[in-house]
Design brief:
Number of helices: 5
Radius of gyration: 17 Å
Low-confidence stretches: none
Helix content: over 70%
Number of strands: 0
Shape: elongated
Structural class: mainly alpha
Strand content: under 5%
Order of helices and strands: HHHHH
Mean pLDDT: 89
Number of domains: 1
């Protein structure tokens, strides 16, 4: 991955992670231009192949995370950040970033649950979620972002950390 593409992608992810950490929001003024800069960087570096890479990456990120936005378990800013990062890195790299970010978010959630001493409630909520999945219905409000009592992990932070780790790995030659 070329530095002209990876560098701005890392900067976008870090800025989004910072805003998500501070305000629990990732604003459109960051994600929308990020999408277009990702496309422009890829077109400059790789022509039409770069355009294809960007559009497939953005579409992949948006398509994979859209169900979680509909279920109210992921914010729209996180969703748009994934699309913007996909415009930079393409769908293959984004797939790895999303899988890594799920692991990072899981560790963050575990630390938060232990810190807040909410293990029993968390297990109940997981039971509600699994039951809803098996019954093919939406989970109740008690396990959505709309519940003010629920513990929330800022997914933008997890995605930013994963992107930073990926970039560091590329810089130091890890595959």
């Amino acid at each position: 991955m070329k530095p002209l593409i990876l560098g701005p992608a890392i900067a976008l992810a870090l800025l989004a992670g910072w805003t998500d950490w501070r305000s629990r929001r990732i604003p459109n003024w960051l994600t929308v231009p990020g999408f277009f800069v990702g496309i422009a960087a890829n077109v400059l570096m790789n022509g039409l192949a770069g355009l294809r890479t960007s559009l497939l990456g953005a579409a992949f990120g948006l398509a994979v995370l859209l169900p979680f936005v509909f279920l109210r378990s992921l914010g729209a800013g996180d969703w748009k950040l994934a699309g913007a990062l996909g415009a930079f890195v393409g769908w293959e790299v984004l797939a790895n970033l999303l899988m890594g970010s799920v692991l990072v978010a899981g560790v963050m959630a575990l630390v938060l649950v232990i810190y807040k001493r909410r293990f029993k409630q968390t297990m109940r909520n997981i039971g509600h979620l699994l039951g809803s999945m098996f019954m093919l219905r939406r989970p109740g409000a008690e396990v959505s972002l709309d519940n003010p009592q629920s513990l929330k992990v800022p997914y933008g932070v997890a995605l930013a950390l994963t992107t930073l780790l990926f970039g560091a790995g590329k810089i130091w030659g890890a595959r």
